[in-house]
Amino acid sequence: MQAHSAPLPRTGIGIDTHAFAPESSDGAAQVPLWLAGLLWEGERGLSGHSDGDAVAHAAADALFSAAGVGDLGTHFGTDRPEWKGASGVRLLSEAARIVRAAGFEIGNVAVQFVGNRPKFSPRRAEAEAVLSAAAGAPVSVSATTSDGLGFPGRGEGITAMATALVVAVNP
Ligand SMILES: Nc1ccn([C@@H]2O[C@H](COP(=O)(O)O)[C@@H](O)[C@H]2O)c(=O)n1
Ligand SMILES: C[C@@]1(CO)OP(=O)(O)OP(=O)(O)OC[C@H]1O
Prior knowledge:
Blueprint: E1 10-19, E2 32-35, E3 38-44, H1 54-67, H2 72-76, H3 88-101, E4 104-114, H4 124-135, E5 139-144, H5 150-153, E6 157-168
Parallel strand pairs: 4-5
Antiparallel strand pairs: 1-6, 2-3, 4-6
The structure holds the ligand Nc1ccn([C@@H]2O[C@H](COP(=O)(O)O)[C@@H](O)[C@H]2O)c(=O)n1 and 2C-methyl-D-erythritol 2,4-cyclodiphosphate.
2C-methyl-D-erythritol 2,4-cyclodiphosphate binds at residues 16, 48-50, 52, 57, 72-73, 76-78, 83, 86, 91.
Subunit structure: Homotrimer.
Site (Transition state stabilizer): 49, 145
Enzyme class: lyase
């Protein structure tokens, strides 16, 4: 590889998808929705071994990808009972710690999720503040519907995609 006077930044990518959990017969939400580090009162929750926060998981996976230190399953596999029910914020904060321990500083993380609900934009600033605090670096979040198409359009689940930028410190 070509030598550079300063280390070049490294990008990473992460994708995570969770299905909405089944509702009770009277339509009341049984599982709380945690998404982008926030609790969404009255919204149907996502299923998962953890809290199902696809936005936080995609962000964590993008960090691992950028640092080249494996992925979510490497560090928080479903075979590890200690991560059962873990919050997305906890996973993201631990991912950031692992990436820094591997010798990287985090530039930023950008996440977009695809889903009809929750209506995200009114709480964007709140979500970005919570996730940025967890990562110790700026995390931006955007949302889009899929125009009614596919599983997000049918309201079956949410998928999130993230990119991250890290740079080696003292390589
Ligand atoms: N769950 C969502 C989805 C979308 N938004 C906002 O609406 C805008 C338009 O959605 P498109 O599907 O036409 O891209 C989008 O840019 C978001 O600002 C949202 O808040 N919550
Ligand atoms: C986060 C973990 C671990 O609790 O579980 P899930 O909540 O199922 O999430 P997913 O993104 O499907 O996989 C990663 C798992 O390691």
